[in-house]
Amino acid sequence: MSGKRRAAGPADKAVPKPPTSTKARLKRVAKWLLILALAGSLLLAGAVFYLYKTTDIPNPNKDFQTQTSFVYYADGKTQLGQYATQNRESIPLKEVPQKMQDAVVAAENKTFWTDKGLDPKGILRAAFSNVQGNATQGASTITQQYVKILYLTQERSYQRKIKEAILSLKIQQQLSKSQILEGYLNTIYFGRGAYGVQAAARAYFNKDAKDLSLKECAVLASVLNNPTLFDPANGKDAKKNLKERYAYVLGGMASMGNITSAKADKAEKHLPVFPEIKAQSQYGGQKGFMLGMVKDELHQLGFSDEEIDGGGLRVTTTFTPKAMQAAEQGVLEARPDGFSDKQLHVAVASVEPGTGALRGFYGGQDYLQSQINWAETGGSPGSSFKPFALATALRNGFSLKDTFDGNSPYYYNGTGTGDRIRNEGTGPDGLGTDYGSAVNLITATEQSINTAYADLTQAIPDGPQKILDTANALGIPKWNKKESNSYNHLHNSPGLEPVAGIALGSATVAPINMANAYASIANGGQHADVHVISKVVDRSGETRWSYKQSTKPAISKDVAADTSYALQQVVQHGTGTAALALGRPAAGKTGTATNSKDQVSSAWFVGYTPQLSTAVMYVRGSGNEQLDGWLPSYFGADYPAQTWTDVMKRDMEGLPVESFPPPANLDGTAPQSGHDPYTPPPSPTYVPSPTHAPSKSPSQSATPSPSHTPPGQTKNPQPSPSDTCGVLGCGPSSSPSSSSPSPSSPSSSGGPGNGNGPSKSPKPMASTEPRRTSRQ
Q1: Residue 215: enclosing H or E segment and its boundaries?
Q2: Which of 417, 604, 716, 751 has the most CB atoms around its CB within 10 Å?
Q3: How do strand 410-411 and strand 420-421 relate by DSSP bridges?
Q4: Residue 440 in contact with residue 449, Cβ under 8 Å?
Q5: CA dihedral 270, 276, 280, 285 (to 10 degrees)
Q6: For residue 484, what pLDDT is reported?
């Protein structure tokens, strides 16, 4: 065997080491930890010393500069407008009223005159909150806030926190408290594009800072904490928030001895008067509304006022010049002469199906005249809300052939007493026009028959709630009772409840949302959230936010197809024939609503082509005032439908003509009996009398024999060689200019001889739209 041999003799024995005690190991670990801590402390101290020496205090009058944010149309190149350029004028502290200084200290940092400028607990609290991804925590002292202002960055990093802490220490060491307060009051943002107390005094009260009263000082000290939340111009909620903050500031001033408790209590009773401040000319026309809507959406996306007004953002919107001009020019062309914008408010909104992009709108008037955007404010849509009930019925087993009670009035309890709905018109008994006890959903939609839709709502199990759910899914916001802003209903529909008359549209809905809900129907039942921003880029070129295109199912494709078919018949044969002038396939619905005095208070037409959905609303005064007897015509079939047509002609110019999908002819199992399609009995053989005069033409006699259509029934159309076939079978073709009544029209309800009410032309012109009401 190869290998080394061990030397002779006994083997060596290893000497065991004594065991290390736990106490000794802990001492060794503690020693190294102490060494590391000392080394880290020295390094940190060196870093702090270096930063302290190399960090200069910015000059607020030279180094503090904001960057204007610009807003662009959908192409991302054409400039729409811009937010406030820096509105700032520095003034010495001696020109700032003492009560203004006291109010700011009481509101933001009661220990300002005695603290060291840093709040270690606040820094740690903010750091932990930011690391956890919570809302950004603000600095807790005026000195720290001043430092944050000078840096003008939204960066969330430990480096920035350290720089702020160093700068706070240096400012505290090198500047007096008065100098710090002066710099702070000349750079803090108050909202309305105003940086500093002098600009704020002019923006809110149209006076110099030196002339501010105690109340006005308390307001400005309140607003600077969060201009979006506390500026009273932002609505009732903001004013309510301001009152609470205002009381807090006055209470703080009293507790610090700046004013007496009695003086604070007296001032707290009422906010000061806010004078009307004229809007800047750059916001003229519709631009003020456009920029306002963009700013609101930026707020929802988490951008602060400081970033929006001075952060150098580049915002690309969904608006197109073509759609914006179409909305304004269409209104100007169609609205009646002699009615000022101060009284007659015409709102338009156009939404793209499939994307939810708001392409164009008209807010009702020039922004410089009034800042109320009626495309957001809205009104009661009346019968233009009925398509949501129609879609709900189709989802629950009914078909377009099923029939409902078209006679007037309709009593909800079925006993002839209690709550009731009536059709518009007088009728033989003065209680509304009768259309027959069994009218199909095509006729009910074409002629906007209230009683049929009331009957339909009752026939659907839990009908009101299901109609509400369908409307919400298609794009109509829920009623948020906690939100009390009376002028912006883009995210709220006041009064929208699951009540028996929900289909008749008495709730307040914004035209933008009506256009978007109809756009969902046009998009095969797929809903996209309406929006006005497509992308936001910051000053460094980094994309901060971009819209992610997505849709979600609201109703099925088949339900959407049959709903669209019914709305096409409104344009072809019903109350929306004015839209035939568009010259391409269109679907839509008229609407007229009444107020509590039974006065017509709004008139609508909402409709769409496959490429665009547009809503038009006419209201008066405060939005709920009388139109009938004031406008030459108050029907949705007249001015609103004509306005819609004039707007859409401009929108559709240059676009290919597209058709709607054919009807799905849904025929499910109806959840309630008694609504089957009406099948007329065979007609008896007619033998003319030898002395009978020659047959009258249809234009000479519109009254069929009672044996042809039994009383209380709607006659179904009979096919003829010139018929076109649809979901109800075949119906006669005719042009919108035809004035000859046709007993076989889908919208015909017979003549006086069969008890169905007055005879109806199959294609009434706009001026013959039945009068409707949304009373409930």
Answers
A1: helix 214-223
A2: 604
A3: antiparallel
A4: no
A5: 120
A6: 63
Q: How far apart are CA 1 and CA 110, in angstroms?
A: 94
Nearest-angstrom CA–CA distance, 282 and 83: 10
Nearest one of 476, 478, 490, 472 to 235, comparing CA atoms: 490
pTM to 2 decimals?
A: 0.73
Answer for the pair 318, 297: CB distance below 8 angstroms, yes or no. no
C-alpha torsion sign, points 728, 730, 732, 734: positive
Give the per-residue pLDDT at 548. Answer: 95
Helix (H) or strand (E) holding 520: helix 511-522
Measure the CA dihedral 306/309/311/315, to 10°: 130
Of the candidates 517, 528, 218, which has an alpha carbon nearest to the alpha carbon of residue 357?
528
**What does the H/E/C string look like for 489-517?**
CCCCCCCCCCCCCHHHCCCCECHHHHHHH
Specify burial of residue 563 (Cβ count, 10 A radius: 0-12, 13-18, 19+).
buried
> What per-residue confidence (pLDDT) applies to 333?
95
Could you tell me how many residues make up the chain? 776
User: Helix crossing, 261-268 with 236-255: angle to 10°?
Assistant: 170
Strands 533-537 and 314-317: antiparallel
Tell me the average confidence (pLDDT) per consecutive run of 10 residues in the chain, 776 residues long: 50 57 78 83 71 64 71 96 78 96 96 81 57 50 84 57 73 87 92 91 95 97 93 88 96 96 96 86 90 96 89 95 98 93 94 98 94 96 98 97 95 86 82 93 97 97 98 97 81 96 96 98 98 95 95 98 98 97 98 93 98 98 94 96 98 97 93 82 50 33 32 34 38 34 32 30 32 36
Q: Quick check: 555 and 470 in contact, CB under 8 A?
A: yes
Residue 768 structure tokens: 């013959």
Strand intervals (E) in 560-645: 587-594, 600-608, 613-620
The four Cα atoms 450, 456, 461, 464 give a dihedral, to 10 degrees, of: -20
**Token pair of 413 as six digits:** 């309890």
Q: Exposure string (b/e) for 6-45, b if CB count within 10 Å is 16 or more? A: eeeeeeeeeeeeeeeeeeeeeeeeeeeeeeeeeeeeeeee
What 8-state DSSP symbol labels residue 61?
Answer: T
Give pLDDT, residue 78.
Answer: 96
Q: Are the beta carbons of 401 and 318 closer than 8 angstroms?
A: no
One-letter amino acid of 390: L
Beta-sheet pairing, 600-608 with 587-594: antiparallel
Distance CA 587, CA 472 (A): 21
User: CB of 325 within 8 A of CB of 561?
Assistant: no
Q: What is d(CA 316, CA 709) in angstroms, rounded to the nearest whole number?
A: 60
Per-residue buried b or exposed e for 724-754, using 16+ beta carbons within 10 Å of the residue's own CB: eebbbebbbebebeeeebbbbbbbbbbbeeb
Determine contact, residues 467/389, Cβ cutoff 8 Å.
Answer: yes
Question: Torsion over CA of 102, 103, 107 and 112, rounded to 10 degrees?
Answer: -20
Q: Which of 646, 625, 515, 527 lies closest to 578 in space, CA to CA?
A: 646
Give the CA distances from residue 278 to residues 68, 194, 206, 287, 724, in Å, rounded to whole numbers and listed in that order.
21, 15, 10, 15, 59
Tell me which residue has tokens 């209380």. Answer: 712
Q: How far apart are CA 521 and CA 518, in angstroms?
A: 5
Dump the DSSP string for 392-429. HHHHTT--TT-EE--SS-EETTSSS-SSEE--SS--TT
d(CA 691, CA 697): 18
What distance in Å separates the CA atoms of residue 536 and residue 530, rounded to the nearest whole number? 17
